[in-house]
Amino acid sequence: MKKVIAVVGCGRIANNAHLPALSKLDNVRIKYACDLLIEKAEALKEKFPIIENVITDYKVALADPEVEAVYVLTPNYAHYEVSMAALKAGKHVFCEKPITVNYDLSVEMAEEAKKQGKLLTIGVVNRFNTSVEMLKKLNEEGRFGNIYHVYCSFRAHRAIPGLGGDFTTKSQSGGGVLIDWGIHFFDLILYILGNAKLETVTCDAYNEMAKDMKSYKYTGMWAEDTKNVETGINDVDDFITGYVRTDKATISFNGAWAQNIGEREMFVDFLGDKAGARLEYGGKFTIYDGETLETINPEYEMIPHFESEDKSFIETIDSGEKTRSYIDNILESMKLLDKLYESAGIRKEIEL
């Protein structure tokens, strides 16, 4: 029997990721697509005819007893309100990353899901990435020996998204490059390491590249149609750097939405005493064997990870299985973001 769902939020992540994936599933009905701007919902329905109805008030979908689950694909600030309302209405929830704008609200969402006996799955899609899954398995098998350190870089030239809009307004987004890009990198690292637990964090955050938004020059801008350099706000981090100790390994990182270095470097290095691996973000990985000195490029097919993620969620509506992206498995990643921002604010290391 087909699972009946509603999609709340008809922006980029709906258009570019989840609706293409959901449209390929034969066990799902999308009864509603909801957006405050009806034209966005209508445009989504025109693009994906699987959608049956368009609405502007998500509470209409929550009041429909036929709807079993809700996809929350809104801007960050609305994750909490919509997800909590959906859970209280007795619906399972898929909420895009980050869980919400801070750790405390994320914990509240987790507690509400347990109280209602409903699934709350978070859109940390890299947990369904073929390369990430392979690296996790290789680590469990001891291929790298002891992974003692991980370095990650999520840096772009000049690419602040939607300058002056929701992306760069802290009250709406919860932060900048760390919460936007960093959550993906840190979550896949903690996952590959085996659900590593935090010990200490230290971080510095900068907002340097677009202090004068009107004069900011850029090579690319995601969500450019949402920018507002005339009257908007830019009070979030565009560069982040720091160091994390976990019970599995240490982690160092540099992240930049924008920097005056003309390179885009998006990778993660896993340093083990037997072998190391570099994962190109969103792509494949290379192994550097410490015993044979071989450089190994494994051959494998990359399975579309949004399709795997959405297929998993829809299947769990029946099974009730708490998968790798169940909220309890993601809270440590959210805690890390919170503590990194806290450390940057006081400019001191924090023990957990």
Describe the structure.
- The strands form 2 sheets. Strands 14-13-12-11-7-10-9-8-15 form a 9-stranded mixed beta sheet, covered by helices on one side.
- It has 10 helices and 15 strands.
- With 352 residues, the protein is of the alpha/beta class.
- The chain starts with a strand and ends with a strand.
- Helix 1 (12-22) crosses helix 9, helix 6 (130-140) packs parallel to helix 8 and helix 8 (177-193) crosses helix 10 (331-346).
Question: Nutshell version of this structure?
Answer:
By secondary structure, the chain is an alpha/beta fold. The protein is built from ten helices and 15 strands.
**Poorly predicted segments:** none
How do the strands line up in the largest sheet?
A: 14-13-12-11-7-10-9-8-15
Give the strand content: 15-25%
N-to-C SSE string, H for helix and E for strand: EHEHEHEHEHEHEHHEEEEEEEHHE
Q: Count of helical segments?
A: 10
Rg from C-alpha positions? 20 Å
Cα distance, first to last residue? 46 Å
Strand tally is 15
Structural class: alpha/beta
Query: What is the overall shape?
Result: globular
Q: What does the average pLDDT come to?
A: 97
Binned, the helix content reads 25-40%
Largest sheet: 9 strands, mixed
